[in-house]
Hints:
Blueprint: H1 5-25, H2 36-53, E1 72-79, E2 84-91, E3 97-106, H3 116-133, E4 140-145, H4 153-163, E5 168-171, H5 173-184, E6 193-198, E7 202-209, E8 212-219, H6 230-241, E9 251-256, H7 257-263, E10 273-275, H8 287-303, E11 308-311, H9 316-322
Parallel strand pairs: 1-4, 4-5, 6-9, 9-11
Antiparallel strand pairs: 1-2, 2-3, 6-7, 7-8, 10-11
Helix pairs in contact: 3-4, 5-9, 6-8, 7-8
Amino acid sequence: xxxxxxxxxxxxxxxxVGAFFLVRQFxxxxxxxxxxxxxxxxxxxxxxxxxxxxVAAPKAFDFTPPAPVNGTLKGIVELGASGFxxxxxxxxxxxxxxxxxxxxxxxxxxENMATEGDIxxxxxxxxxxxxxxxxxxxxxxxxxxxxxxxxxxxxxIxxxxxSLxxxxxxxxxxQEGIYALKASLPKAYEGKAFVVDxxxxxxxxxxxxxxxxxxxxxxxxxxxxxxxxxxxxxxEVSSVAAQVPAAQRSVCFIIGGAxxxxxxxxxxxxxxxxxxxxxxxxxxxxxxxxxGATIYQAxxxxxxxxxxxxxxxxxxxxxxxxxx
Length: 324
């Protein structure tokens, strides 16, 4: 049977179309979209991003306090129950200050205290060290906190210092909080932040009411020695924290033994300020660590503050130097 010209043309078209689809079937598919292997390769990257997003990166507190200009060296010694803490700072007329030297837990004077002569000799040696550093005798001050005044060693040391012409300043908890505020609250944060000092015996919470410093006292990090429960402490600390004005809750400058133990686990080099992690991120195996975390948690929950900044240089005794 002979095919017409039209039939031949149709047959050629059918063969051509079939060939086109046959060739297309075996061509690479990258032009139309990613291959299955490429899609699979992107899955681990997305998962890694999700995992990274779930871990809070350590914060940094980008602030440098103004350095003192033509400052004077001043020394302060805190008499504790078992030893001395001493600080030498340089202070200028505007009350800008810089820590030059710090010693913690020095117990030279607490050893071999059998006689008044031993006490005087030990105190003279301790004072001589501050004089050799460049502190003038009139700029050396001594302080004892209300929680340490009951220590059996303190009255003897006060008497020894008096015989050398030095006065020991006794401060109560409210004054400690005010001095902590003066030392820890930068001028740039006045009216914007508050200060907390968590000690073993008590915790001080301080802020500015206008230009007037305010301070309140609550449980310290060894409240368990007094038979207080975690629930009781959380409730009372929350009550104190509630007094902090809302406008001053964005940042908290925090000092004291309990936050020190927290901050030292992740300090970045020799940074002046370390932003604390959440209370639950710290090891609470030790009883004091758990107590400190309970106080910190109450402060955080009640104020809503999410930036607690530990100051490695500040101490409430330095605030005393700034007040005289």
